[in-house]
Each structure stands twice: as C-alpha cells, then as structure tokens.
Design brief:
By secondary structure, the protein is mostly beta strands. It has no helices and ten strands. The strands form two sheets. The protein has a six-stranded mixed β-sheet, with no helix packed on it.
Length: 114
C-alpha cells in the first residue's frame, strides 16, 4: 500500500527553522519526482518545492532562498529544510509525487507565530 507520512512540523517564531520529513512507501521512489505542497486555512493547496530524479530542484518564488528540498533514495524520504520562516508560511505541509498524485498523507502542521 502506497503511503506518505509527513513529520517535523511545529510552532516556531518568525525567523526560525524547521526540517520536515516525508517517508514515502513508493516502490520506484528513486525514479519518482517528489514535491512539497502546503495548504493554509481557507486557501487552496499550493505547490512549494519539487525535486526531480536527477536531483534538480525548483521552488515557489516566495520560498526561494529560504527553503531547501532534498531526498534520500535509500530511505525513501524527502526533506524540506525551512529557514527564515515567516507567518505567511503557516500551513499544513504535505508531500506527494510531482505528477499523478497518490493518496495524500495527513500532513504536518507548521505554525509561525510570535
């Protein structure tokens, strides 16, 4: 059964950092482009970052220079290092494939507040 399990969220002050993890039980993980997404209260889910199978990355403009996506194929895990967090980063964060989404996990809540 394909499963995505996100973790690492929490409450952090503006300017702080968090590292999110996503454990993905995808059989061909190493050849699967993966992404991080987020959904703020009352808003649509949006794409945040992606990492392709060659390791290349891309980011939503508002997080460029602050967030870094990475992957560990041996552990079938995708990470999102988030630095210089802002209140507008507050959301539930999810991971999923870049194309042909599979079932969404429960997400991990990130709250940036003083």
């Amino acid at each position: 059964q394909v499963q995505l399990v996100e973790s690492g969220g929490g409450l952090v002050q503006p300017g702080g950092s968090l590292r999110l993890s996503c454990a993905a039980s995808i059989s061909l993980f190493s050849i699967t482009a993966m992404g991080w997404y987020r959904q703020a209260p009352g808003k649509e889910r949006e794409w945040v970052a992606r990492i392709l199978i060659d390791g290349s990355t891309s980011y939503k403009d508002s997080v460029k220079g602050r967030f870094t996506i990475s992957r560990d194929n041996a552990k079938k895990t995708v990470y999102l290092q988030m630095n210089s967090l802002k209140p507008e980063d507050t959301a539930v964060y999810y991971c999923n494939r870049v194309v042909n989404y599979i079932g969404w996990g429960q997400g991990t809540q990130v709250t940036v507040s003083s």
